[in-house]
Amino acid sequence: GAVVSQHPSRVICKSGTSVKIECRSLDFQATTMFWYRQFPKQSLMLMATSNEGSKATYEQGVEKDKFLINHASLTLSTLTVTSAHPEDSSFYICSARYPAGRTDTQYFGPGTRLTVL
Amino acid sequence: GDSVTQMEGPVTLSEEAFLTINCTYTATGYPSLFWYVQYPGEGLQLLLKATKADDKGSNKGFEATYRKETTSFHLEKGSVQVSDSAVYFCALSETGNQFYFGTGTSLTVIP
């Protein structure tokens, strides 16, 4: 159980375009999902916490208008990189919290490799 | 604040060698501790976890014991295989929301 999927796995886009990445919890409901960014050979950087039915909470230094997050259902959160630029190229990983409670765990999606030309 | 310090890599071992990856943490409360593994081009997979002091997490031959007295959660495996080559991340969480990750340790196992 506790499987998280992401789509697409890879995307290449032109500078100035917008890209949407989907994160789905396949076999459980996730009221909270998380979006991370990972630079080559580095650890994960938490970008934002996505809450179903409410606005996302962004970490300091992350531009809300550039990285739009929508968590419209208990199994789907989306991250839209708007007006992408080459410096936005990165590996984006989502995770979902399961089950609720103090000892819960985050389960991660397989990641999306974004390349902006 | 909470943080995780992880042994820097890269680590290169021969097949069947013993593995230890050190991890120490700083926390204000009583966190849960995790080890995640990331294979090339993939997301993170939960390897094992421990939720309280003296707990031992284990999976696929890997083990780690939650040591409150030394604030450590070192990852060990008695005999590594080529398929264990990956990046390993130590992490902690006090609430299940905010996760703090170490910088990751790259392991390469050679035949």
Present the secondary structure layout.
The complex is a heterodimer of chains A (117) and B (111).
Chain A: E1 4-7, E2 10-13, E3 19-25, E4 32-38, E5 44-51, E6 57-58, E7 67-73, E8 76-81, E9 90-98, E10 105-108, E11 112-116
Parallel strand pairs in A: 2-11
Antiparallel strand pairs in A: 1-3, 3-8, 4-5, 4-9, 5-6, 7-8, 9-10, 9-11
Chain B: E1 3-6, E2 11-14, E3 19-21, E4 23-26, E5 32-38, E6 44-50, E7 56-59, E8 62-65, E9 75-77, E10 86-93, E11 99-101, E12 105-110
Parallel strand pairs in B: 2-12
Antiparallel strand pairs in B: 1-4, 3-9, 5-6, 5-10, 7-8, 8-9, 10-11, 10-12
3D structure, described in words:
The complex is a heterodimer of chains A (117) and B (111). Chain A is mainly β. Chain A is 0% helix and 54% strand. Chain A has no helices and eleven strands. In chain A, the strands form two sheets. In chain A, strands 2, 4, 5, 6, 9, 10 and 11 form a seven-stranded mixed sheet that branches. A four-stranded antiparallel sheet of chain A has the order 1-3-8-7, with no helix packed on it. In chain A, strand 5 and strand 6 form a beta hairpin. By secondary structure, chain B is mainly β. Chain B has no helices and twelve strands. In chain B, the strands form three sheets. In chain B, strands 2, 5, 6, 10, 11 and 12 form a six-stranded mixed sheet that branches. The model of chain B has no long low-confidence stretch (mean pLDDT 93). Chains A and B meet through strand 5, strand 9 and strand 10 of A and strand 5 and strand 6 of B.
